[in-house]
Design goal:
384 residues, alpha+beta, Rossmann fold, Dna Ligase, domain 1, D-amino Acid Aminotransferase, Chain A, domain 1, 3 domains, 9-stranded antiparallel sheet, 31% helix, binds adenosine-5'-triphosphate, binds magnesium ion, PurT/PurK_preATP-grasp, ATP binding, EC 6.3.4.18, ATP-binding
Protein backbone atom coordinates (compact mmCIF):
# COMPACT_ATOMS: atom_id res chain seq x y z
CA UNK A 1 0.00 0.00 0.00
CA UNK A 2 0.90 3.67 -0.18
CA UNK A 3 2.81 5.35 2.63
CA UNK A 4 1.30 8.54 4.02
CA UNK A 5 3.51 10.99 5.92
CA UNK A 6 1.81 13.12 8.58
CA UNK A 7 3.15 16.47 9.77
CA UNK A 8 2.09 16.31 13.42
CA UNK A 9 1.51 13.41 15.76
CA UNK A 10 -1.42 14.49 17.92
CA UNK A 11 -4.71 12.71 18.43
CA UNK A 12 -5.97 13.75 14.99
CA UNK A 13 -2.98 12.05 13.38
CA UNK A 14 -3.55 9.03 15.59
CA UNK A 15 -7.19 8.65 14.52
CA UNK A 16 -6.30 9.20 10.84
CA UNK A 17 -3.82 6.32 11.22
CA UNK A 18 -6.22 4.02 13.08
CA UNK A 19 -8.78 4.47 10.31
CA UNK A 20 -6.23 4.42 7.48
CA UNK A 21 -4.67 1.12 8.52
CA UNK A 22 -7.86 -0.76 7.76
CA UNK A 23 -7.65 0.76 4.27
CA UNK A 24 -4.15 -0.68 3.84
CA UNK A 25 -2.08 2.49 4.11
CA UNK A 26 1.24 2.78 5.96
CA UNK A 27 1.98 5.86 8.05
CA UNK A 28 5.00 7.88 9.14
CA UNK A 29 4.59 10.71 11.63
CA UNK A 30 6.81 13.74 12.24
CA UNK A 31 6.54 15.33 15.67
CA UNK A 32 8.96 16.78 18.24
CA UNK A 33 7.74 14.26 20.85
CA UNK A 34 9.00 10.69 20.53
CA UNK A 35 6.00 9.16 22.33
CA UNK A 36 3.12 11.20 20.89
CA UNK A 37 -0.42 9.89 20.23
CA UNK A 38 0.37 9.47 16.53
CA UNK A 39 3.77 7.79 16.85
CA UNK A 40 2.28 5.10 19.12
CA UNK A 41 0.22 3.76 16.22
CA UNK A 42 2.39 4.77 13.22
CA UNK A 43 4.65 2.40 11.27
CA UNK A 44 7.55 4.82 11.60
CA UNK A 45 8.18 8.06 13.45
CA UNK A 46 10.62 10.91 12.86
CA UNK A 47 11.47 13.13 15.81
CA UNK A 48 11.72 16.70 14.61
CA UNK A 49 10.37 20.21 15.05
CA UNK A 50 7.57 21.22 12.70
CA UNK A 51 9.72 23.95 11.16
CA UNK A 52 12.72 21.63 10.70
CA UNK A 53 12.95 21.43 6.92
CA UNK A 54 15.54 18.63 6.95
CA UNK A 55 13.28 16.45 9.11
CA UNK A 56 10.28 17.24 6.89
CA UNK A 57 12.34 16.29 3.85
CA UNK A 58 13.22 12.94 5.44
CA UNK A 59 9.49 12.38 5.99
CA UNK A 60 8.78 13.29 2.37
CA UNK A 61 11.44 10.95 0.97
CA UNK A 62 9.82 8.01 2.69
CA UNK A 63 6.21 8.93 1.90
CA UNK A 64 4.05 8.80 -1.23
CA UNK A 65 2.05 11.73 0.00
CA UNK A 66 2.19 14.21 2.87
CA UNK A 67 -0.67 15.59 4.96
CA UNK A 68 -0.84 17.98 7.89
CA UNK A 69 -3.08 17.41 10.90
CA UNK A 70 -2.98 20.86 12.47
CA UNK A 71 -2.73 24.42 11.19
CA UNK A 72 -0.34 26.03 13.65
CA UNK A 73 2.45 24.88 11.39
CA UNK A 74 5.06 26.78 9.42
CA UNK A 75 3.74 27.26 5.88
CA UNK A 76 7.36 27.59 4.67
CA UNK A 77 7.99 23.90 5.24
CA UNK A 78 4.82 22.91 3.39
CA UNK A 79 5.63 25.32 0.56
CA UNK A 80 9.08 23.73 0.20
CA UNK A 81 7.75 20.18 0.32
CA UNK A 82 5.12 20.74 -2.33
CA UNK A 83 7.80 21.77 -4.86
CA UNK A 84 8.94 18.17 -5.12
CA UNK A 85 6.37 16.02 -3.32
CA UNK A 86 2.66 15.35 -3.27
CA UNK A 87 0.97 17.51 -0.59
CA UNK A 88 -2.70 17.35 -1.59
CA UNK A 89 -4.02 19.84 1.00
CA UNK A 90 -1.44 22.35 -0.28
CA UNK A 91 0.19 25.34 1.39
CA UNK A 92 -2.48 27.85 0.38
CA UNK A 93 -5.19 26.29 2.55
CA UNK A 94 -2.71 26.27 5.44
CA UNK A 95 -1.69 29.88 4.89
CA UNK A 96 -5.30 30.98 5.00
CA UNK A 97 -6.50 28.92 7.95
CA UNK A 98 -3.46 29.52 10.18
CA UNK A 99 -4.07 33.25 10.03
CA UNK A 100 -7.36 34.59 11.37
CA UNK A 101 -7.30 37.71 9.20
CA UNK A 102 -6.62 35.84 5.95
CA UNK A 103 -9.25 33.33 6.98
CA UNK A 104 -11.93 35.95 7.63
CA UNK A 105 -11.22 37.65 4.33
CA UNK A 106 -11.44 34.35 2.49
CA UNK A 107 -14.77 33.50 4.15
CA UNK A 108 -16.14 36.95 3.30
CA UNK A 109 -14.99 36.53 -0.30
CA UNK A 110 -16.92 33.27 -0.42
CA UNK A 111 -20.01 35.39 0.30
CA UNK A 112 -20.40 33.97 3.80
CA UNK A 113 -20.86 36.33 6.79
CA UNK A 114 -18.43 36.62 9.74
CA UNK A 115 -18.54 38.63 12.98
CA UNK A 116 -17.63 42.32 12.47
CA UNK A 117 -13.89 42.75 13.11
CA UNK A 118 -10.95 45.14 12.92
CA UNK A 119 -7.22 44.58 12.43
CA UNK A 120 -5.18 45.61 15.48
CA UNK A 121 -1.47 46.37 15.62
CA UNK A 122 -1.20 49.08 18.26
CA UNK A 123 -2.97 50.05 21.48
CA UNK A 124 -4.39 53.05 19.59
CA UNK A 125 -5.86 50.70 16.96
CA UNK A 126 -7.53 48.82 19.79
CA UNK A 127 -8.99 51.93 21.40
CA UNK A 128 -10.53 53.17 18.18
CA UNK A 129 -11.75 49.71 17.14
CA UNK A 130 -13.48 49.32 20.51
CA UNK A 131 -15.19 52.66 19.94
CA UNK A 132 -16.44 51.44 16.58
CA UNK A 133 -17.45 47.89 17.51
CA UNK A 134 -18.55 48.53 21.11
CA UNK A 135 -18.34 46.35 24.23
CA UNK A 136 -17.93 43.51 24.90
CA UNK A 137 -15.43 42.48 22.24
CA UNK A 138 -12.95 39.65 21.78
CA UNK A 139 -9.30 40.29 20.96
CA UNK A 140 -7.52 37.36 19.25
CA UNK A 141 -3.97 36.81 18.03
CA UNK A 142 -4.02 36.29 14.27
CA UNK A 143 -1.82 33.17 14.51
CA UNK A 144 -1.04 30.37 16.95
CA UNK A 145 -4.26 30.33 19.02
CA UNK A 146 -6.29 27.24 19.91
CA UNK A 147 -8.61 26.17 22.77
CA UNK A 148 -9.14 29.88 23.51
CA UNK A 149 -5.42 30.53 24.07
CA UNK A 150 -4.34 33.91 22.70
CA UNK A 151 -7.78 35.45 23.32
CA UNK A 152 -8.96 38.24 25.59
CA UNK A 153 -12.55 39.22 26.21
CA UNK A 154 -12.78 42.99 26.75
CA UNK A 155 -15.84 44.19 28.65
CA UNK A 156 -14.94 47.76 29.59
CA UNK A 157 -12.46 50.49 28.52
CA UNK A 158 -10.58 49.91 31.83
CA UNK A 159 -9.78 46.35 30.81
CA UNK A 160 -7.63 47.59 27.93
CA UNK A 161 -5.13 48.91 30.49
CA UNK A 162 -4.85 45.50 32.15
CA UNK A 163 -3.85 43.65 28.96
CA UNK A 164 -0.32 42.19 29.21
CA UNK A 165 2.43 44.77 28.77
CA UNK A 166 4.43 44.37 25.60
CA UNK A 167 1.46 42.89 23.76
CA UNK A 168 1.57 45.68 21.21
CA UNK A 169 5.30 45.79 20.54
CA UNK A 170 4.76 45.90 16.79
CA UNK A 171 5.66 42.23 16.36
CA UNK A 172 2.20 40.73 16.72
CA UNK A 173 -0.99 41.31 14.85
CA UNK A 174 -4.45 40.81 16.35
CA UNK A 175 -8.04 41.04 15.33
CA UNK A 176 -10.78 42.51 17.45
CA UNK A 177 -14.18 40.89 16.98
CA UNK A 178 -17.52 42.12 18.13
CA UNK A 179 -18.80 39.82 20.86
CA UNK A 180 -21.62 37.78 19.33
CA UNK A 181 -24.49 36.97 21.75
CA UNK A 182 -25.04 33.63 20.05
CA UNK A 183 -27.77 31.21 21.15
CA UNK A 184 -25.89 28.15 19.91
CA UNK A 185 -22.59 27.14 18.36
CA UNK A 186 -22.52 24.76 15.43
CA UNK A 187 -19.97 23.18 13.15
CA UNK A 188 -19.97 21.40 9.84
CA UNK A 189 -17.10 19.24 8.57
CA UNK A 190 -16.92 19.18 4.76
CA UNK A 191 -14.77 16.88 2.69
CA UNK A 192 -13.58 17.91 -0.75
CA UNK A 193 -11.55 15.48 -2.80
CA UNK A 194 -8.71 16.07 -5.26
CA UNK A 195 -11.37 15.37 -7.93
CA UNK A 196 -13.63 18.18 -6.62
CA UNK A 197 -16.23 15.83 -5.13
CA UNK A 198 -17.80 17.35 -2.01
CA UNK A 199 -19.60 15.76 0.96
CA UNK A 200 -20.72 17.42 4.20
CA UNK A 201 -21.13 15.57 7.50
CA UNK A 202 -24.30 16.22 9.49
CA UNK A 203 -23.88 19.49 11.46
CA UNK A 204 -23.19 19.31 15.20
CA UNK A 205 -24.21 21.69 17.99
CA UNK A 206 -21.28 22.33 20.32
CA UNK A 207 -20.91 23.34 23.96
CA UNK A 208 -17.66 24.88 25.16
CA UNK A 209 -16.43 25.07 28.76
CA UNK A 210 -13.68 27.55 29.46
CA UNK A 211 -13.17 27.97 25.70
CA UNK A 212 -12.52 24.25 25.20
CA UNK A 213 -15.00 22.05 23.37
CA UNK A 214 -16.95 20.03 25.94
CA UNK A 215 -19.74 18.35 24.00
CA UNK A 216 -20.96 17.89 20.42
CA UNK A 217 -24.50 16.83 19.63
CA UNK A 218 -25.94 15.28 16.46
CA UNK A 219 -28.41 15.52 14.93
CA UNK A 220 -27.96 19.21 15.69
CA UNK A 221 -30.93 20.45 17.76
CA UNK A 222 -31.82 23.23 15.32
CA UNK A 223 -34.54 23.78 12.74
CA UNK A 224 -34.34 22.15 9.33
CA UNK A 225 -33.72 25.60 7.80
CA UNK A 226 -30.74 26.32 10.03
CA UNK A 227 -29.38 22.85 9.32
CA UNK A 228 -29.62 23.41 5.56
CA UNK A 229 -28.17 26.90 5.76
CA UNK A 230 -25.22 25.69 7.88
CA UNK A 231 -24.45 22.98 5.33
CA UNK A 232 -24.85 25.36 2.43
CA UNK A 233 -22.46 27.90 3.96
CA UNK A 234 -19.87 25.26 4.82
CA UNK A 235 -19.92 23.75 1.32
CA UNK A 236 -19.63 27.22 -0.15
CA UNK A 237 -16.50 27.90 1.93
CA UNK A 238 -14.99 24.53 0.94
CA UNK A 239 -15.61 25.17 -2.75
CA UNK A 240 -14.47 28.78 -2.69
CA UNK A 241 -11.21 27.78 -0.97
CA UNK A 242 -10.86 24.75 -3.28
CA UNK A 243 -10.17 22.71 -0.17
CA UNK A 244 -8.57 19.31 -0.61
CA UNK A 245 -9.09 17.10 2.43
CA UNK A 246 -11.42 18.47 5.09
CA UNK A 247 -12.51 21.86 6.28
CA UNK A 248 -14.37 22.26 9.56
CA UNK A 249 -16.51 25.38 9.66
CA UNK A 250 -17.41 26.70 13.14
CA UNK A 251 -20.49 28.93 13.30
CA UNK A 252 -22.55 31.02 15.69
CA UNK A 253 -26.35 30.79 15.57
CA UNK A 254 -27.85 34.23 16.22
CA UNK A 255 -31.07 34.86 18.17
CA UNK A 256 -32.94 35.45 14.86
CA UNK A 257 -31.69 32.14 13.43
CA UNK A 258 -29.01 33.74 11.22
CA UNK A 259 -25.53 32.22 11.04
CA UNK A 260 -22.04 33.72 11.20
CA UNK A 261 -18.81 31.81 10.59
CA UNK A 262 -16.44 31.92 13.58
CA UNK A 263 -13.40 30.08 12.25
CA UNK A 264 -12.15 27.26 10.04
CA UNK A 265 -9.88 24.25 10.52
CA UNK A 266 -8.25 22.52 7.49
CA UNK A 267 -8.33 19.02 9.01
CA UNK A 268 -10.43 16.61 11.06
CA UNK A 269 -12.16 18.52 13.85
CA UNK A 270 -12.94 17.68 17.47
CA UNK A 271 -16.64 18.27 16.81
CA UNK A 272 -16.46 15.62 14.07
CA UNK A 273 -15.17 12.85 16.33
CA UNK A 274 -18.72 11.54 16.63
CA UNK A 275 -18.46 10.42 12.98
CA UNK A 276 -16.01 7.69 14.04
CA UNK A 277 -18.84 5.76 15.73
CA UNK A 278 -22.01 7.24 14.26
CA UNK A 279 -21.47 7.66 10.50
CA UNK A 280 -21.05 5.31 7.56
CA UNK A 281 -17.69 6.99 6.91
CA UNK A 282 -15.69 8.67 9.70
CA UNK A 283 -14.13 12.09 9.15
CA UNK A 284 -10.72 10.36 9.32
CA UNK A 285 -11.50 7.85 6.57
CA UNK A 286 -13.14 10.62 4.54
CA UNK A 287 -10.02 12.76 4.91
CA UNK A 288 -7.89 9.92 3.51
CA UNK A 289 -10.38 9.29 0.69
CA UNK A 290 -10.28 12.98 -0.20
CA UNK A 291 -6.48 13.35 -0.26
CA UNK A 292 -5.85 10.06 -2.08
CA UNK A 293 -8.54 10.65 -4.73
CA UNK A 294 -10.78 7.73 -3.73
CA UNK A 295 -14.52 8.30 -4.15
CA UNK A 296 -15.90 9.89 -0.97
CA UNK A 297 -17.87 7.64 1.36
CA UNK A 298 -21.35 8.31 2.64
CA UNK A 299 -21.23 10.86 5.48
CA UNK A 300 -24.71 9.89 6.68
CA UNK A 301 -25.19 9.10 10.37
CA UNK A 302 -26.92 5.88 11.37
CA UNK A 303 -27.52 6.97 14.95
CA UNK A 304 -27.94 10.09 17.05
CA UNK A 305 -24.70 10.69 18.94
CA UNK A 306 -23.26 12.85 21.70
CA UNK A 307 -19.49 13.24 22.01
CA UNK A 308 -17.88 14.44 25.25
CA UNK A 309 -14.22 15.32 25.68
CA UNK A 310 -12.12 13.78 28.43
CA UNK A 311 -9.75 16.47 29.68
CA UNK A 312 -6.89 15.94 32.12
CA UNK A 313 -9.14 16.74 35.07
CA UNK A 314 -11.62 14.00 34.03
CA UNK A 315 -9.11 11.27 33.27
CA UNK A 316 -8.85 9.69 36.70
CA UNK A 317 -12.60 9.43 37.19
CA UNK A 318 -13.01 7.88 33.76
CA UNK A 319 -10.29 5.33 34.54
CA UNK A 320 -11.88 4.42 37.88
CA UNK A 321 -15.24 3.77 36.20
CA UNK A 322 -13.85 2.24 33.02
CA UNK A 323 -15.01 -1.32 33.76
CA UNK A 324 -18.60 -0.26 34.46
CA UNK A 325 -19.29 2.42 31.87
CA UNK A 326 -22.65 2.19 30.06
CA UNK A 327 -22.44 -0.08 27.03
CA UNK A 328 -23.57 2.75 24.72
CA UNK A 329 -20.44 4.73 25.64
CA UNK A 330 -17.51 4.27 23.25
CA UNK A 331 -14.19 5.35 24.74
CA UNK A 332 -11.36 6.76 22.60
CA UNK A 333 -8.10 7.21 24.43
CA UNK A 334 -5.20 9.18 22.92
CA UNK A 335 -2.29 7.66 24.86
CA UNK A 336 -1.03 10.94 26.34
CA UNK A 337 1.11 10.47 29.43
CA UNK A 338 0.49 13.59 31.51
CA UNK A 339 -3.11 14.38 32.45
CA UNK A 340 -2.77 18.17 32.66
CA UNK A 341 -5.85 20.31 33.35
CA UNK A 342 -7.51 21.32 30.09
CA UNK A 343 -5.51 18.83 28.02
CA UNK A 344 -7.54 16.62 25.69
CA UNK A 345 -6.80 13.05 26.84
CA UNK A 346 -9.58 11.26 24.95
CA UNK A 347 -13.28 11.43 24.22
CA UNK A 348 -16.39 9.31 24.50
CA UNK A 349 -19.22 8.96 22.03
CA UNK A 350 -22.62 7.83 23.22
CA UNK A 351 -24.97 6.34 20.63
CA UNK A 352 -28.67 6.13 21.50
CA UNK A 353 -32.06 6.25 19.84
CA UNK A 354 -32.43 9.93 20.71
CA UNK A 355 -30.16 12.79 21.78
CA UNK A 356 -32.14 13.01 25.05
CA UNK A 357 -31.34 9.39 25.86
CA UNK A 358 -27.67 9.91 25.02
CA UNK A 359 -27.58 12.93 27.35
CA UNK A 360 -29.19 10.89 30.15
CA UNK A 361 -26.56 8.19 29.75
CA UNK A 362 -23.85 10.84 30.06
CA UNK A 363 -25.52 12.28 33.20
CA UNK A 364 -25.60 8.77 34.70
CA UNK A 365 -21.81 8.56 35.01
CA UNK A 366 -19.84 10.68 37.44
CA UNK A 367 -17.11 12.08 35.20
CA UNK A 368 -18.13 15.59 34.13
CA UNK A 369 -19.98 18.32 36.05
CA UNK A 370 -23.64 18.17 34.96
CA UNK A 371 -25.05 20.51 32.32
CA UNK A 372 -26.05 23.92 33.63
CA UNK A 373 -29.42 25.45 32.80
CA UNK A 374 -27.69 27.79 30.38
CA UNK A 375 -26.03 24.83 28.64
CA UNK A 376 -29.34 22.98 28.50
CA UNK A 377 -30.88 26.03 26.79
CA UNK A 378 -28.08 26.05 24.24
CA UNK A 379 -28.86 22.48 23.21
CA UNK A 380 -32.64 22.78 23.13
CA UNK A 381 -34.31 22.56 19.78
CA UNK A 382 -36.47 25.66 20.27
CA UNK A 383 -34.95 29.04 19.54
CA UNK A 384 -35.35 31.71 22.18
P1 LIG B 1 -10.44 26.18 18.79
O1 LIG B 1 -9.95 25.29 19.88
O2 LIG B 1 -11.89 25.94 18.41
O3 LIG B 1 -9.54 26.26 17.61
P2 LIG B 1 -9.74 28.97 19.17
O4 LIG B 1 -8.77 29.24 20.26
O5 LIG B 1 -9.24 29.00 17.78
O6 LIG B 1 -10.51 27.62 19.48
P3 LIG B 1 -12.26 30.40 18.70
O7 LIG B 1 -12.94 29.21 18.14
O8 LIG B 1 -12.12 31.59 17.84
O9 LIG B 1 -10.85 30.07 19.37
O10 LIG B 1 -13.03 30.84 20.04
C1 LIG B 1 -13.24 29.91 21.11
C2 LIG B 1 -14.63 30.10 21.65
O11 LIG B 1 -14.75 31.40 22.23
C3 LIG B 1 -15.73 30.01 20.61
O12 LIG B 1 -16.11 28.67 20.34
C4 LIG B 1 -16.83 30.82 21.31
O13 LIG B 1 -17.44 30.05 22.32
C5 LIG B 1 -16.03 31.94 21.96
N1 LIG B 1 -15.92 33.08 21.05
C6 LIG B 1 -14.94 33.32 20.15
N2 LIG B 1 -15.16 34.45 19.44
C7 LIG B 1 -16.31 34.97 19.89
C8 LIG B 1 -17.10 36.12 19.56
N3 LIG B 1 -16.71 37.00 18.62
N4 LIG B 1 -18.25 36.31 20.22
C9 LIG B 1 -18.66 35.45 21.19
N5 LIG B 1 -17.98 34.36 21.55
C10 LIG B 1 -16.83 34.10 20.92
MG1 LIG C 1 -9.21 27.64 16.28
MG1 LIG D 1 -12.86 27.41 17.53
Amino acid sequence: GQTIGILGGGQLGRMIILEGRKMGYRFITLDPARDCPGSQVADEHIVGAYDDLAAAQRLAERSDLIVYEFENLSPDVVRQLEQSHCVPQGSRLLEITRHRLEEKRAVEQAGVPVAPYRVIETREDLTSALQELGYPAVLKTTTGGYDGKGQWRIQTPEEVASLPVGMFNGERQYILEKFIPFVKEMSVVVARSVTGEVAAFPPAVNLHRRHILHMSITPAPVSAEIMREAERMAVRVAEHLQVVGLVAVEMFVLPDGGLLVNELAPRPHNSGHYTYDACHTSQFEQFLRAVTGLPLGSPAAYSPAVMVNILGEHAERLMNQFHRLPKEMKVHWYGKKEAKTGRKMGHVTVLADTVEQALQIIESVDIWPPLTDKEKDAIQNEMK
